[in-house]
């Protein structure tokens, strides 16, 4: 069984003439034969240029929480832009979005932006401005966007280069980052209480922030161990360090109040993007009154021509209103759990050792391991090649997870029971296929 990709391949060839590697984000390039050009999406489905239909579990790397082209969001944006898209002034929709975020997440103050990268960059500056310290801690396998400071030991780092877990090496994720930047970041293994306590005891006075994805949204959704986030909170309070939850993936996805609500921990700063706009470009930094009070003229710079633009603000207003008033996340949890259980049952029946990490709205399958991985190093012990084969067999059958097991399966409101049943039928066939080829 092979799909017809004639039109898709032809258009991708053209894309390569004008765009490096034919994509506008390196993560979208899967190889000349595998990279798709997508024509449209609706609900849980997307279609390529050859009209091949896929059940989409990538959801644009997570943002599409309600479903593609969700009519009420699209309509709100379409109506809003009749009155123009951008002003050098505040608009009512921005105020409404900020009010909703405060109500839903428990932060005191909010500034809007456009992308996850933008808000993590600003959050780091705010933390530095607040503490007058320069270094920060992040955790191996975490990704916080494309600015220089955070591109070390991300989920793309080869595990063999991370060094001893007692003295981790910052593995740079890109050329073009000035050498001096490396000194500002300290990467530690996630969930490693001892390393965290030792590092802070020795270096707390240098450290402005602990930047954490509360669950490893870029490394298979690995969960915090009991007490881990509490420990981060306790130590940040003790040492005057700003605790930043990067909720670009978890925000408005694992609970209306994101990871703060789900895990019951309040951070000092929180970054949001993705699900808050159902795929429209909108992002936010939320935080406590005290930390956010450093933002302003003559203090910490934050700004942007497009911050709070009408398109993003209208989309976020509509998306957050729907999340607040309807059982969206509960439904995603229910259907996601069915999918996780079904997938696990099929793998077990076929004798494939596996562990499922994460939560129903964003989970991952790690093949070849039985025990729960608690950090990025442990994730790497799984069989990534087998996972990729399985993912490719699924895509061939119209089910689209990411080919890279580090990227979770994302669910939206429209992955309903029928879509899950369809997925599980394809999953069974894909597993048989992979076993035949083994
Ligand atoms: C946790 C996290 N932070 C930040 C970012 C960067 O967001 P963006 O791609 O919108 O710049 C991402 C993107 O995947 C992310 O997963």
Largest sheet: 7 strands, mixed
**The CATH superfamily title of the largest domain:** Type I PLP-dependent aspartate aminotransferase-like (Major domain)
What is the ordering of alpha helices and beta strands?
A: HEEEHHEHEEHEHEHEEHHHEEHHEEH
Radius of gyration: 21 Å
In terms of per-residue confidence, which ranges show pLDDT below 50 for 5 or more consecutive residues?
none
In terms of DSSP E residues, the strand content is: 5-15%
Gross morphology: globular
The averaged pLDDT comes out at 97
Number of strands: 14
Number of self-contained structural domains: 2
Name the strands of the widest sheet in spatial order.
4-10-9-8-7-5-6
Write down the CATH topology of the largest domain: Aspartate Aminotransferase, domain 2
- Bound chemical compounds: pyridoxal-5'-phosphate
Helix/strand-derived category reads alpha/beta
- Assign a percent range to the helix content: 25-40%
Give the name of the CATH architecture of the largest domain: 3-Layer(aba) Sandwich
Distance linking N and C termini: 18 Å
Number of helices: 13
- The CATH class assignment of the largest domain is Alpha Beta
